[in-house]
Amino acid sequence: MTRTHPRGLRLNAYVLAGDPAWIGQSLGSYYDLVDRIVVSYDRSHRSWSGHPLSVQESLRRIAAADPEHKVVLLPGDHVAGERSLMATETAQRQAALDAASDGADWVLQLDTDEVLPEPGTLLAQLAVADETGAGAIDFPLRNLYAMTGDGRFLEQCGRFWTTQAAYPGPVAVRAGTALTVARQAGGVPHHRVDVSPRNSDPAHPRSTPVHAVIPAEQAILHLSWVRTEEQMREKRDVSGYSKNRDWDHDLARWRWRTRHPWLTAAAAPLSRKWWDRYRPVRVDRLAGARP
To answer: What is the three-class DSSP state of 283?
Structure first.
């Protein structure tokens, strides 16, 4: 049965399966909002660059998080071959988005390491975006970098430990949208939500428009590097962009920061790189959760 939200919005979602670390928590955080969840994966269980992926474990966790049988499996061929990795990712996302668009007004496109703390907040902003004619919604993410021994998380922050948002791509687009790069939707008006009246993402100009403000606690939790040692090694091996970074160096720093969160935070004002500053925080939504 189609779930109609206030203002008559019908929502579906799609995900790319292959990273099981937080996939159950991610789906569970918005499960009640959507009618269908299209799950896209490579039929040979490989990444865009051709490395083995944990697709089977991802599908097992997805099934455990799907009590109402909303999931629709969409296997395909998603190894790059002669194409670029980015073109392959974009094509996989487009195929999943096209399938999820059937019977929907909007499609959620959260990655499987992104957890939505307050579904009602996103739903309210979707309603505003729909009313104002936007084609995509940019919703703030908090980048969580690691879990410390006492249950805190290291969160990416400003120079003096201020909250900053991140926007890897729209978290929802209108059904039928044509993606440009990855989950980006170019050529359509965006409804942009932030945790501050002025843009708080250092990757964007300070003059970037902000249409709505929400408390930081309601921003999406991005858990890309919150993993076990084994999961981090797998991330290093299967990452489509592994050649763009020194993973051995990055993993050594990740281990040290995990063990020394307060020294890591003390170094934030000294770092010249805005993406390399962290503060320890407690996150109620993830209390007791483990990858």
So the answer is: coil
At which residue do the structure tokens 């206030």 appear?
6
CA distance 41 to 262: 39
Percent of the chain with pLDDT over 70: 96
**Structural domains of the chain, count:** 1
The two tokens of residue 14 are: 């799609």
Gap between the Cα atoms of 87 and 262, Å rounded: 40
Enumerate the H helices of the chain as residue ranges: 23-30, 55-64, 85-101, 119-131, 229-238, 247-259, 261-266
DSSP annotation of 155? E
| pLDDT over threshold 50, residue 248 | yes
The answer to whether position 117 is within a domain reads: yes
Q: What residues make up the domain containing 255?
A: 6-286
Phi then psi dihedrals of residue 9, to 5 deg = -75, 135
* 159 phi and psi angles, rounded to 5 deg: -55, -40
